[in-house]
Amino acid sequence: MLSGPVDVNVTFDDGLTILYTRKFTGAGPDSKTVSHQVFTNTPGTRARSAGASPRRPRGRTSCGPTLCPRPPRAPEPGGVYREAVRLATWNVNSVTARLPRLVDWLAGTKPDVVCLQETKTANFPAADVEQLGYQVAAHGDGRWNGVAVLSRVGLDEVTAGFPGEPGFPDAETRALGVTCAGVRMWSVYVPNGRIVDSEHYGYKLAWLAGLRSALETELAKHPKLVVCGDFNVAPADSDVWDPKAFVGATHVTEPERAALEALRDLGLVDVVPRPLKGSNPFTYWDYRAGMFHQDMGMRIDLFYATPPVAGDVTDAYIDREARKGKAPSDHAPIVVDVS
Fold first, then answer.
1. Of 265, 255, 264, which Cα lies nearest the Cα of 232?
2. pLDDT per residue rounded down to tens, the chain (339 residues)
3. Which of 301, 310, 268, 338 is nearest to 90 (CA)?
4. Cross-strand pairs, 150
5. CA 79: distance to chain centroid?
6. Residues 6+ apart with CB under 8 A from 214
7. Distance from first CA to last CA of the chain, Å, rounded?
8. Phi and psi at residue 274, in whole multiples of 5°?
9. Coil vs helix vs strand at 65
């Protein structure tokens, strides 16, 4: 059993402020420490105009292979302009190992809000991204899970985990909710499931059911909501490179896909990003030699949004370039521009 919580507030000489660090520490040989943190030294400075009406997605814009430019501000009725917002989600597969790449990507892509998964740390390296103007909320236990949200448009209502979240056996660090510029954002890292009909598979389905219940409550309070991250489920056969290669495997089974459908039944829209190369909207490629270069991948990183957010999407793309190079994550970021 976990004990705690303990809240600590510390301000360092360099201006980094830990608003709170809450740690739960268990006893015995299987004990662990789980922490979630919020860091800030630059408050959010921008928000969309209140009462802005939803807009239908415009035609997809074209851009070069390495960087899609930020969209211009969109005019409101009467000629008043509001800021466009760039959202993103990325399974970084260890923020410590991927930190230089993450910092470079943030500087080049300039997202306003980024949901990260599989951070694999209980102590998020906040100082490195704060230099770019981001506040950080992180929820991790230092093992193989962990989620975070980076924002430069405000960071409020931080919620680590969700009520009734299933565990294995204890709740893991797989979900983090925050509010940024009036949009409720959830960064989620769904359990892998490993083998069909195993305990891990049952845990995965229970976790997705718990997420649906939590989102149903959230949607009653937040009409503008996004839940995104690594869902470890391909919604359709077209979302894997070869359906025959996945027969009998997890990520493509009917119960898993039904769990995704149950999320969409809440009114969430699947914002499918466009690939910058080829025709497959894959977001994950195994590290095994040749998988990435042969585009033998899967679309398991998803961006679900309520209609007031999805209706304002002007572009959504998979930054395949971020999967290239030395020591990359095995996932590519999804970038979504909202007017």
1. 255
2. 333 333 333 222 233 223 333 333 333 333 333 444 443 333 332 233 233 333 333 333 333 333 456 555 444 443 333 579 999 999 999 999 999 999 999 999 999 999 999 999 999 999 999 999 999 999 999 878 999 999 999 999 999 999 999 999 999 999 999 999 999 999 999 999 999 999 999 999 999 999 999 999 999 999 999 999 999 999 999 999 999 999 999 999 999 999 999 999 999 999 999 999 999 999 999 998 789 999 999 999 999 999 999 999 999 999 999 999 999 999 999 999 999
3. 301
4. 114, 136
5. 34
6. 162, 163, 164, 165, 175
7. 46
8. -90, 145
9. coil
DSSP-assigned states of every residue in 234-285: -SSGGGBS-GGGGTT-TTS-HHHHHHHHHHHTTT-EE-PPEESSSS----EE
Give the amino acid at 305. Answer: A
Query: Which residues on neighbouring strands pair with residue 138, listed in sequence order?
Result: 37, 148
Residue pair 128/154 in contact (Cβ under 8 Å)? The answer is no
Task: Give the position of tokens 């093992």.
Answer: 143
Distance set, CA 284 to CA 76, 107, 173, 281 (Å): 37, 23, 21, 10
Alpha-carbon gap, residue 105 to 134, rounded angstroms: 13
Q: Which domains does the chain have, with CATH numbers?
A: 75-338 (3.60.10.10)
pTM of this structure: 0.80
At residue 297, the 3 state secondary structure works out as: strand
Give helix 254-264 / helix 199-221 axis angle, nearest 10°. 10
Name the DSSP class of 196. T
